């Protein structure tokens, strides 16, 4: 596996962010704008289902770093659209990595806990056996393999339970439902760590900054990147409601009216892993950083929603 090479001081090329208009892409543009010359493209310019657009975009920009923030993330819909999920989540990352290798640059890609089956009793390590339960999980695993097979300089960051100010996510769904519904039923037999996109973006920016400025870079490979701690979806939902209530937001539901249910009762089209916990020791050692508890990110985003009145929109 190829390791990253440090760059001479002052020799900084462009950073290309693909999928720049999505939940993660918006935060990456914020963080990476402080690191180097940023070129941000969305699906209107670079559709990850189009090999021609991918190649044309990369060859036009000639970036030193490609950051792939795009992806097909409709987990249940992927069950009936496997070809599209594979094109966006597997073929596109491999093609981006090949273009990065041709330029002698770095490929940064994001993957998911869904590459595991969730049967392990403890947090997953990077080299644990993969066994995706869904089309989405399989497509993301195939994307990891495609990037690794190219043997370009690369980092693959696996994460879980992502949320932020942009796009749709569990935090926003619960916050909005809590204003109009007097009871909620939430899955209690799946465990993980809610992770803000701001954390993913800031860690990425730190690593890319060191790469571009000649510091000793992380070796190529897979790294787990999530907030610390753990909860289940039911506990997560209760925390959201309790935090909003404490902030004076008028709610229809009370924490005790959030009912725990089994995942089987929810009836999703795609199976989810029961254990989404990822061990982040490798990443923390490589960058010499600490990662915050999941509650810190959740509380910060909820405060931004309340203060900015975006929650009410």
Helical proportion, percent range: 25-40%
- What is the CATH class designation of the domain at 14-168 and 194-229 and 276-292? Alpha Beta
What spatial form do the alpha-carbon principal axes imply?
A: globular
Structural class: alpha/beta
Instruction: Write down the CATH topology of the domain at 14-168 and 194-229 and 276-292.
Output: Rossmann fold
User: Whole-number radius of gyration?
Assistant: 19 Å
Count helical runs. Answer: 10
Q: H/E element string?
A: EHEHEHEHEEHEEEHEEHEHHH
Fraction in beta strands: 15-25%
Largest sheet, strands/sense/barrel: 6 strands, parallel
CATH-assigned homologous superfamily of the domain at 14-168 and 194-229 and 276-292 = NAD(P)-binding Rossmann-like Domain
Uncertain segments are 1-11
Ends apart, CA distance between termini: 48 Å
Judging by the overall fold, what is the CATH architecture of the domain at 14-168 and 194-229 and 276-292? 3-Layer(aba) Sandwich
Mean pLDDT: 93
